[in-house]
Design a protein that fits this description.
By secondary structure, the chain is α/β, with parallel strands linked by helices. The chain folds into two domains: about 150 residues, Alpha/beta knot; about 80 residues, tRNA(m1g37)methyltransferase, domain 2 (Trp Operon Repressor, Chain A). Helix content is about 35%, strand content about 15%. The chain contains nine helices and ten strands. The strands form three sheets. A five-stranded parallel beta sheet has the order 2-1-6-5-8, sandwiched between helices. A three-stranded mixed beta sheet has the order 3-4-7, with no helix packed on it. Strands 9-10 form a two-stranded antiparallel sheet. The longest helix has 19 residues. The structure holds adenine. The site of adenine (ADE) has 12 residues, from β5.
Amino acid sequence: MRFEIVTLFPEIVEALRIGLLGKAMDSGAIEIVARSPREFATDKHRSVDDAPYGGGSGMVLMPGPIAETLDALDAERGGPSHKVLLTPQGDRFDQRMAERFAALPSLTLVCGRYEGFDERIRGMVDQEVSLGDFVLLGGEIAGATIIEAVARLGPGVLGNDESATEESHSTGLLEYPQYTRPSVFRGQEVPAVLKSGDHARVARWRRKEALRRTKERRPDLLETAPLTDEDRKLLAELAAEDES
Ligand code: ADE
């Protein structure tokens, strides 16, 4: 899959070359291309922002350099790309959105900076996306977050195909607790069932603990998670434990 980042800080791409994402970049499983609107600035200072009409503090990103950057990417790519503007005013990013993005051939992330961007930039994208109800200094870190969440769902990024489907949110639930050696750490023991070698019991324990954790921390998720009859039995057991 191809990711494009429209940013005044194209060096962000090299900062992403870490861990499995870095491996995926090196192997060609994913491609990340950054283009700076500054390349398309027209004045001698290479300005990409200007004072807001109507007055007020701060600078506003100009529409021209962003439009030119998007045109250049369109021309270089040949085919279409889903264009996303990163802004706290956008649709909230979540695992479902990551899954939809992972099915695309190309995703273009437009990062705002400074105090804001010209309203006409909104008309250049297909969608506005927010990471949550907080304000970042710019869209770069939000874009990097989206790339990591989307890239790991694609082929050739994770070592084993199961890891992407078992963990928090992809099943609609939070993930069950995991343990490794040592068997006892500062008096805290690994649950005996995990050392029993009984795969069916381990699977049942994990499912129940995933349900317990979700019920405790994110009860809202239980309303939309796809639950089986067995899950409902496990939830009834948890409710009975709460009462005793
Ligand atoms: N840019 C600034 N704040 C942001 C947020 N919360 N999500 C996405 N992009 C942003």
